[in-house]
Specification:
The complex is a heterotrimer of chains A (about 325), B (about 240) and C (about 290).
Chain A: H1 2-9, H2 11-25, H3 37-62, H4 71-87, H5 92-116, H6 119-139, H7 141-144, E1 150-151, H8 159-182, H9 184-194, H10 196-201, H11 206-232, E2 234-235, H12 242-254, H13 262-280, H14 285-302, H15 309-331
Antiparallel strand pairs in A: 1-2
Chain B: E1 3-12, E2 15-25, E3 30-34, H1 41-49, E4 56-61, E5 64-65, H2 71-77, E6 79-82, H3 94-102, H4 109-123, H5 138-150, E7 156-160, H6 168-183, E8 188-192, H7 196-202, E9 205-210, E10 213-218, H8 220-225, H9 227-234, H10 236-242
Parallel strand pairs in B: 3-8, 3-9, 6-7, 7-8
Antiparallel strand pairs in B: 1-2, 1-4, 4-5, 9-10
Helix pairs in contact in B: 3-4, 3-5, 4-5, 9-10
Chain C: H1 3-33, H2 41-58, H3 63-85, H4 91-113, E1 127-132, E2 135-140, H5 141-163, H6 165-175, H7 177-182, H8 187-212, H9 220-234, H10 239-259, H11 264-278, H12 290-293
Antiparallel strand pairs in C: 1-2
Helix pairs in contact in C: 1-5, 1-8, 1-9, 1-10, 2-3, 2-4, 2-8, 2-9, 3-8, 5-6, 6-8, 9-10, 9-11
The chains are: A mainly alpha (about 325), B alpha/beta (about 240), C mainly alpha (about 290).
Chain lengths: ~325, ~240, ~290
């Protein structure tokens, strides 16, 4: 209980809550022309990507298992809804469940690979899974309509409703992240990331924990992917692309990898990308992905820990100045 | 027999790291393992911990065979260790690192935190509990690694060159701490060490490895005058000079 | 499908194996020996292919000139990439940096050259025809030439590492960086040079790929996985193994193309996953690393 009280009272939480409340009020200002529709849509996407990033954060930020193919789970969740509603004519919840089941299978494969291997092997495996699914999605016409993708019909629901749901999902992922981090699970995840051998010699079955991490993360990502597909009503093979994986990555890393605030700050990146898309137009998709690549490289070269390292750097700079001052006083 | 290594052998290609090594440790003892660099001491420790699997031979703690067991199971059987470079968990705090050890025996966050706190008090690092490991100095980091290992409630604790890099007053403090671990916490200790002051002052018995073979064993005094040991460390010519 | 056509196609696959061997060798060298994670490997291969195409077909320049320019250019590209981008030794950071580069390059290629597939060589290669009964086994002479050339290049690389001073310096740095520094070898620069040399191999492979296969801007990801997969089969860092693993892969690849061409890439990815799950140390476990096996 203490932890929750401490978390809620902290300054960043108050700021974020204030911003969320403002955003929640946006639909009230909407008029007949729908002038708030775009901001509502943007807010919804921002919340969704923050949620995706938090899910990835659990696997990679906390546990250190760098999955660069998270789009695999996202895409499975999306296609499950598409195929389920459009082809198999099952209800929505069954479709979402189907997505989760397949994501768990894929996550388990990754978990098995990650049991003994790490680093580059794991990363390559994650991207191989995503690309494998991408190829299957683009060639298995009977199931996925290949490049055309799948579009679904659903009852007309106001965008604002989706925005509120996305907000709830985002808050849920943040809470899940928080409680995992404070628990034995989270402590072990970080221990595995920092020094796996030591974690083992302190009694943790690290392979199993790595498996937990990918199962949890994959399931969460799949659920969010299903939600987003239902909102957007369309899916195509690009949903497995490394552009999406990278986007999730960037959102998670830009604010500070492994921290709970990282993905939240990273949500701003989604806004940036949407602006870029507005400027360049969708015919210049490759140009915008080029810029995504450039940004990723730039961030990782300049400050791999992400932007929220800035307060830390600032603190260290101030401490340095203090100690310099003290030295000068002593000299006198 | 509390802890027994029998005829353990490990080779890497043509290199024999451990050649039919056998040794015994009684409950409550402090036993040292010394030998020149490359003698195979760390390999033996790695096999006891389960990071490396012996080619042949057996390692038993209270009658339970440990060879082929994974490391985390060996920890749960009651063997813990510290590593040479005291890397620990750089981004975790001291408290959380020790809690990681406590989680070996309980899944409750509350119990683990309490147990960790008690262990940290035992070594006197309570004021540093919330500091990040990578911000601690080397002495505190070594203590931290010690405490994390102790939090797993081990029966046998392996110390791999714990005293390396410490100045002489730190060495004395650490010796006192190690003795307290042995007497107050009733932990049996198996120590690899190059700092002879340590071996001499706290081990009841010492084993000596050279080129993978056990060449001598006995009390510290016996070892220090054994010609075999002197030859191993200083070479053939020194032995001839002596005689 | 007659046996002779089967054999024809299989032989074609085997000959392509030489190229796969070089692709794998360069990658294996980067990851196995230099411990550098290069996510943009495939993207550079693709760009190399398109540069060759552009030089020979669009600009009409002398092919030999284009090829030599590419090889020299790629040495400096490799040197530059390592020097500027890959200074951190943290594997995850390298992955992300090279991933950014990969995204940038692949989409740059897409932007510049578009999605239409192209073929560089429209002339059919002269073929040897071996009559078997009333059917014929056809062996493309150029394919055999490429295979022989690949073998020569790989042997050359092997000899380079073993016998030349630079090769020995590279092996020294790979084994013991600090010790190499102590004996007067500039480790950082040596690794940069070594990386550049691996890019030379990569560019040679690009040229061969452009000769044999259809050029598509989206193939970067595929070549990356290919390189990793074949390196795994050969054993990371194993040059001699790379050649034979490449040939093995070439035959398997043509066999798949025969029966399930639509799913070829997906099957390769699945094979990759299977190899990672069950044979992470390679199919022909060669525990020796590059520096020691050469």
């Amino acid at each position: 209980m203490n932890l929750i009280k401490r978390g809620i009272k902290s300054k960043p939480t108050i700021i974020i809550t204030a911003i969320l409340m403002l955003v929640a009020l946006m639909p009230l200002f909407d008029d007949a022309k729908g002038s708030m529709q775009l901001p509502i849509h943007l807010a919804c996407m921002v919340f969704c990507y923050i949620a995706l990033a938090q899910s990835w954060n659990i696997l990679a930020g906390l546990c250190g298992q760098f999955s660069v193919g998270h789009a695999a789970f996202y895409g499975l969740g999306s296609y499950a809804v598409g195929i389920g509603l459009h082809r198999m004519k099952i209800n929505l919840f069954l479709a979402i469940l189907m997505g989760v089941v397949f994501s768990i299978i894929v996550a388990a494969i990754l978990g098995v690979i990650g049991w003994k291997l790490s680093g580059f092997y794991y990363t390559m495996a994650s991207i191989a899974l995503a690309e494998c699914l991408a190829v299957i999605a683009s060639t298995w016409y009977e199931l996925t309509s290949a490049q055309q993708g799948i579009a679904i019909y659903r009852p007309s629901i106001p965008k604002a409703v989706f925005m509120y749901m996305a907000m709830a999902i985002m808050i849920a992922t943040i809470i899940i992240f928080y409680f995992i981090r404070k628990s034995k699970l989270g402590t072990t995840f970080v221990a595995v990331r920092e020094n796996e051998n030591l974690a083992q010699s302190l009694g943790a079955n690290t392979g199993r924990y790595k498996m937990f991490a990918v199962l949890i993360s994959g399931t969460m990502t799949s659920l969010i992917g299903s939600f987003m597909m239902y909102y957007v009503q369309a899916v195509d093979p690009m949903v497995f692309s490394s552009a999406i994986s990278s986007k999730i990555l960037i959102v998670a890393i830009i604010g500070g990898i492994g921290t709970i605030w990282g993905p939240i700050v990273g949500g701003l990146y989604v806004l940036l990308e949407e602006v870029m898309r507005g400027v360049f137009g969708s015919s210049f998709a490759s140009l915008s992905v080029m810029i995504v690549g450039g940004i990723l490289t730039f961030i990782m070269m300049v400050r791999p820990e992400g932007i929220s390292a800035i307060p830390k750097v600032y603190k260290e700079w101030r401490e340095q100045k203090q100690s310099n001052k003290l030295l000068k006083c002593e000299e006198k | 027999m509390f802890f027994e290594v029998s005829e353990v052998t490990k080779s890497y290609g043509g290199l024999v790291a451990n050649d039919k090594v056998s040794l015994k440790i009684d409950k409550g003892e402090i036993v040292g393992l010394i030998g020149p660099n490359g003698a195979g001491k760390s390999t033996l420790f790695q096999m006891v911990q389960g990071f490396v699997v012996a080619d042949s031979g057996s390692i038993k703690l209270k009658g339970t065979e440990l060879v082929n067991k994974p490391t985390y199971k060996i920890c749960r059987e009651g063997i813990a260790c510290t590593f040479q470079h005291a890397l620990l968990f750089p981004k975790l705090t001291l408290g959380e690192s020790v809690r990681m050890g406590a989680y070996c025996r309980t899944s409750s966050r509350k119990k683990a935190t309490e147990h960790a706190r008690r262990m940290i008090e035992f070594v006197g690092l309570t004021d540093k509990e919330d500091k990040q490991i990578n911000k601690l100095n080397i002495y505190d980091r070594k203590c931290a690694e010690l405490v994390a290992a102790l939090a797993t409630e081990p029966e046998l604790l392996l110390l791999d060159e714990l005293f390396a890099g410490l100045n002489s007053s730190e060495v004395s403090d650490m010796i006192a701490l190690v003795k307290r671990i042995n007497t107050e916490l009733k932990v049996t200790l198996f120590i690899i060490e190059h700092v002879l002051k340590v071996i001499m002052s706290i081990s009841r018995r010492v084993y000596v490895l050279d080129y993978g073979k056990l060449i001598a064993s006995g009390t510290p005094q016996e070892i220090s005058v054994s010609p075999l040991v002197i030859k191993a460390y200083l070479g053939e010519e020194y032995n001839e000079l002596e005689s | 499908m007659s046996i002779t056509s089967l054999i024809t196609i299989l032989i074609g696959g085997i000959c392509a194996g030489g190229i796969y061997g070089i692709i794998s060798c360069a990658f294996s060298f980067q990851y196995g020996a230099l411990n550098i994670v290069n996510f943009a490997y495939g993207a550079f291969a693709t760009i190399g292919m398109f540069l060759v195409y552009m030089g020979i077909r669009d600009l009409g320049l002398n092919p030999a000139l284009v090829i030599i320019t590419l090889i020299v250019l790629y040495f400096f590209v490799g040197f530059f990439v390592r020097k500027v981008f890959l200074r951190s030794s943290d594997g995850n950071v390298q992955v992300l940096i090279t991933m950014g580069i990969s995204l940038f390059l692949q989409n740059f290629a897409l932007f510049v050259w578009g999605a239409t597939p192209r073929v560089m060589i429209n002339v059919v290669s002269p073929t040897w025809k071996i009559p078997v009964g009333d059917r014929v086994i056809m062996i493309s002479q150029w394919n055999v030439g490429l295979l022989a050339l690949s073998a020569v290049i790989l042997i050359g690389f092997s000899v380079f590492l073993k016998k030349t001073w630079l090769g020995m310096a590279i092996r020294a740095v790979v084994q013991q960086k600090e010790a190499a520094n102590l004996v007067g070898i500039n480790s950082e620069r040596t690794i940069n040079v070594a990386f550049g040399i691996s890019y030379v191999l990569l560019s040679i492979a690009s040229v061969m790929l452009a000769v044999l296969f259809t050029l598509e801007t989206t193939t970067g990801d595929y070549y990356r996985i290919l390189a990793f997969l074949i390196s795994l089969i050969a054993g990371m860092g194993n040059i001699k193994g790379a050649f034979f693993a490449g040939i093995l892969f070439g035959s398997v690849s043509s066999a798949i193309n025969l029966f399930l061409p639509r799913y070829h890439n997906a099957i390769i990815y699945v094979l990759f996953i299977i190899v990672l799950m069950f044979f992470p140390n390679g199919l022909f476990t060669s525990k020796k690393s590059l520096a020691r096996s050469v």
